[in-house]
Amino acid sequence: MSAPVQAQNGNGNGGVRPPAVMNGPAANGFSGGAGVLGGAAPAINAMMQGGSGGASPYALSTTGSFNPYMVPSAAMSGANQMNPYSLSTYPGNYPYPPYTNPYSAGIGYGSVLQGFASTVAATGQYEKDLQMAKIIREKARQESLETARKSLQFQWWYENQMLLSNSRRRDMEMALDLDRARKDPPESEIYSAGALNTLLRSINTVGKLSRGPNVSLEEEVLRNVNLSGGTSPGNIGMLKDAWKADWKPEWPEGLLAEGLEETRASMVKNLRSAVNTLKDKAELTQAMKNDIRGAYNALLQKLNETDGDLTPSQSIDSRRFMNQLSSAIKALSDPKAVNYFNNNWNAKGKNVAELVDHMNREGLRFAPAAQGDEAAYRALYQALRSFEAGLQLASQR
């Protein structure tokens, strides 16, 4: 292709003179008659066919006389020539001096800058890798120390647990239970009599009850404390007054549903009859036990069916009542259940020392609280804790 022609336009700016706009019919398939596209068709065809017509590839540019490889003529004169490609990474003259061909071979300022930037990036990455290596090494040291610590813990556990005898392990558990019972345990542990029996065991271990302080007990507290012979898992607590003609349990709302009237009445009748039989020092018949168990199962089945209609508090109260009722029924089956009603297994004593002495002679322990006994159990716990602390102090003198 022939060299572009440089000329001055009307504004004094240098550039490539575009092909003239010619009038005439379209040629070689270019339609449109007169106009830029129609007039330029011969030149474009010549360029595409490799002729020597020398058409400018920028003739159809939206900006007139634009050639990115040329600069204004005025800027090319003088000693301080401007060349927009003076910083090209590929210096060279294209297509005529003093223009620069960005596609020719060679290394220029851009390559130097790129190399410098790569050096800086590599240096930064090196420093970063160096610090990361230090961090990884420190983590490895920490993990090594953690492994050593766990090894020591395992050795301690093995020596103090696996090698301990059963008696030593039991002594440790009892010491933990006593420490918990002395430091205001949860009320649930008081109502279940667990904390009370732990303090009772500690009192009996020290011995010599007469050396302890005089901690009095009110009659109302003793009347609402339940005892057990220790041979039965049951608790007669809710049936202590069942021998009375007007006795009836405090039914929770969850068991007051319609259709249970006869079942509740049957349960009350059978329980009252069983308690009076035991007070007369007679044994319960199997038919009586079956009637009581059948009424209990009917109540439990009804509760399971209506539990979804109860509020959470109603459901909890109903379940607690059924658990206490089940425990009372188990106590009635104890061969020594008669002792619950002949005053032998009642809580007796004017103070803690007399109560503990009575329980030791009869082989008794504290049984869980029944509904309404909570206040008495809290008072008894405080009395036992005070007596146990005073007895321990006296034994150390």
Instruction: Indicate the low-confidence ranges by residue numbers.
Output: 1-41, 46-55, 71-82, 85-94
- Into which percent range does the helicity of residues fall? 40-55%
Rounded radius of gyration (Å): 53 Å
Mean pLDDT: 75
Terminal CA distance reads: 123 Å
Assembly status = single chain
Main beta-sheet annotation: 2 strands, antiparallel
Contiguous helical run count: 12
Structural class, please?
Answer: mainly alpha
Strand order across the biggest sheet?
1-2
Shape: elongated
Instruction: State which percent range the strand residues make up.
Output: under 5%
Number of E-type strands: 4
Could you characterize what this model shows?
With 397 residues, this protein is an all-alpha fold. Among the domains are: 55 residues; 107 residues, no CATH class; 83 residues, no CATH class. The chain has a two-stranded antiparallel ribbon. Strands 3-4 form a two-stranded antiparallel ribbon. Helix 4 crosses helix 6. The longest helix is centred in the middle third of the chain and has 54 residues.
